[in-house]
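Notes from hallway chat w/ T.B., transcribed later so I don't forget. T.B. wanted the structure written out for a chain they're using in a teaching module, and asked if we could keep both sequence and structure tokens in one place. Agreed to drop them here.
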Amino acid sequence: MSTLSVSEVPLDSASPSQWLRRIAAAVRVQFTWWGVRRTLTNQQKEEVGDTYGAEAGFISASKKLIDTRHEAFRKLTAVRTRVCQYWRGLTLPYTEPGVRLIRQADIDGFVQVMEGFRDELLSAEADLNNVYQEIKADARKRLGRLYNADDYPPAIEDVFGVSWEFPSVEPPSYLMRLNPDLYQQEQRRVAQRFDEAVQLAEQAFVAEFAKLVSHLTERISTGVEGERKIFRDSAITNLSGFFERFRHLSVRSSQQLDQLVDQAKGLVQGIQPQDLRDNDRLRQQVATQLSQVQASLDGMMVDLPRRRIIRPDAALQGASHADPV
């Protein structure tokens, strides 16, 4: 008996994984980055060992090529951090390291924003190059005998960059013609990956939501001795931001999670941070009701199935090559 392919299943009757597979695409972001640390040579390790009476083979040491606290370098890392935050905030986790899932409808906007980030990174690289000789002179003074001119590129050009691509996660169509059995096997493998992607997304949403609710509840709850704690506006604005992301990215795989999000959203909707500072009764009411949401989320986190560990994104690790996020 023949079965419908994923593309033939009506969206309104598709399972969460089938729906996600239909509306999403894979996206990978990569950085080209100048690695600003170098491992000490064996001779340098021996010199360090002689100083401390240690064997060089038992010493692991590295040196920083430049002062990474310099404003020009921090501009570069600030752009990289914003890229990572934007990419992760617009996408869902996937089972392949360095790959996430983006709604196909978001791709055009994503590319436009990423092109802007790329221009910012190029501008920041040029600013670093303008003070490069000054930075090298400072490094020569700070590193002393450890300074090696060969560790430094002639100029800061094309050593920082960001790129993105949309790799296919579907079996190639030609495989159906060449080997139908293998094609069906690959279809089942991809379906299983999207089942796991749905579970990963749910776990990520539950963990983020629980953290935000727990933080706000703790900050607006009255202390043991009746003291009022100080909380930042971000305790509420971050939660509101989560509601927007959840509405946009949720695959609707958990009715309980959907209900808890709606419940929490209703509790804080229309409430400004200053309202909670000025109105003790409102503050205590919201804290009490949010604690009930928190208890339910804690129960969901206990019940979530354990999945294989996905290698953490290497987005904020410096590299001297194209480094997958």
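Follow-up for T.B.: Residues 308-324 have pLDDT under 50 and may be disordered. Might be a good example for the class.
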